[in-house]
Design goal:
CATH topology: Lipocalin
Number of helices: 1
Structural class: mainly beta
CATH class: Mainly Beta
CATH architecture: Beta Barrel
Shape: globular
Strand order of the largest sheet: 1-2-3-4-5-6-7-8-9-10
Helix content: under 10%
Length: 171
């Protein structure tokens, strides 16, 4: 056990903490690199009509094979960590994939495609009680510092808009 701990300690002393790294240039995940850096902010109204700020922060995982993110809601002087998730390349499905968990334990999984930095997702949202429902999400890039986010939910045979907002990057 001591040899193993000594080896780990030597590695940490020699290399320190490695910074997060982007994936190789031709990795499909690299198409989302524009999301990294700064804080993306959207202003919306909460369910009761009060103003609420949504903050989205995104960074590479330390090994560069995943793009991790966190989304906070801010209202009335409080910050609530709402979502944490990550995008990654799924080798068996040959697609970008996403997994997200919210503060209530609900899980959303999706397969995604990119087109010029824009993102389209087919989601399956699973509530903490095990109920599932489909969702569709589009992220449409508007230059380097803004994007539109639109989520659609299925009601019967129809897709209805569930949420639409615009994020702007603050550096």
């Amino acid at each position: 056990m001591r040899v193993g701990m000594a080896f780990v300690a030597a590695l940490l002393i020699t290399y320190g903490t490695l910074p997060a790294a982007a994936p190789p240039e031709h990795d499909p995940l690299a198409e989302l690199s524009w999301l990294v850096g700064g804080t993306w902010v959207a202003e919306i109204q909460s369910a009761d009509g009060r103003p609420m700020r949504v903050e989205f922060k995104c960074d590479w995982s330390e090994h560069g094979r995943a793009l991790k993110y966190v989304i906070h809601f801010k209202a009335d002087g409080q910050t609530i960590p709402q979502y944490e998730g990550m995008y990654y390349w799924h080798p068996a499905k040959k697609k970008l994939a996403m997994v997200q968990v919210d503060r209530n334990g609900n899980v959303t999984e999706s397969l995604a495609t990119t087109d010029g930095g824009n993102l389209t997702q087919e989601n399956e949202a699973t509530t903490a009680d095990g109920t599932t429902r489909p969702q569709r999400v589009t992220v449409t890039r508007d230059g380097d510092d803004a994007f539109a986010f639109k989520a659609m939910v299925k009601r019967g045979d129809e897709w209805l808009e569930g949420l639409s907002l615009v994020y702007r990057r603050q550096k």
